Amino acid sequence: MPAEPTLNVEHELFASGATMIIGIDEVGRGAMAGPVMVGVCALSPGVTEFPAGLRDSKLVSEKKRIALFPEVQQWAPTAVGEASAAEIDELGITACLGLAARRALISLHEAGVPVGEATVLLDGAHDWLNPALSSKLQVTTRVKADQDCAVVSAASIVAKVTRDELMVSLDAQHPEYGWASNKGYGAAVHMEAIKTIGLTPYHRASWVK
């Protein structure tokens, strides 16, 4: 089973001199429709606990994610940024991960979080964030950080719930694609609708072969 998240890595970063840690995770990278979204969560020194049941968003039920969402928002400052399907077609997915993250970080900054002084804990092995920023941040990448670092799990939850809610709302406009259930990923009903009906403005046209 995947490891449960802890604050061990975060505390190591604080012990090494970090004054603020921002966990970052993305959702929707592999979808055929809808935006890619990036969640960010800012953690201050001295925090020793986190919401019970917190996990990487992929490892908890939709009902549990929705329940955790307000708990995470009360626990630490969060924000979500997005890049649209059109931007993904124009710029590519990696650049749009950075674009969405930059937008989320701007929201944190506007809420009073000292983003420029933070150490970023980024899920994955590749720093796709700094190429999108005019002022570089201290970035630590960690594979499966969304599973074993609570601040990144929290970022994952807020991004996933926000994106799912958007895709459900878009499903009301385009119910043929089944977005309420498949959230824009390549499920059979979605792919069949693309073949028979065509694309919407929310589809990543460059991804549809």
Essential attributes:
alpha/beta; Nucleotidyltransferase, domain 5; 5-stranded mixed beta sheet; 5 strands; metal-binding; manganese; RNaseH-like_sf; nuclease; RNA-DNA hybrid ribonuclease activity
Oligomer: single chain
CATH superfamily: Ribonuclease H-like superfamily/Ribonuclease H
Query: What is the spatial order of strands in the main beta sheet?
Result: 3-2-1-4-5
- H/E element order: HEEHEHHEEHHHH
C-alpha end-to-end distance: 36 Å
How large, in whole angstroms, is the Cα Rg? 17 Å
Q: Indicate the CATH topology.
A: Nucleotidyltransferase, domain 5
The major pleated sheet works out as: 5 strands, mixed
The overall pLDDT, averaged over residues, is 95
Would you identify the CATH architecture? 2-Layer Sandwich
**Text of the CATH class:** Alpha Beta
Briefly note the structural class of the backbone: alpha/beta
* Count of helical stretches: 8
What overall form do the CA principal axes indicate?
globular
- Provide the domain count: 1
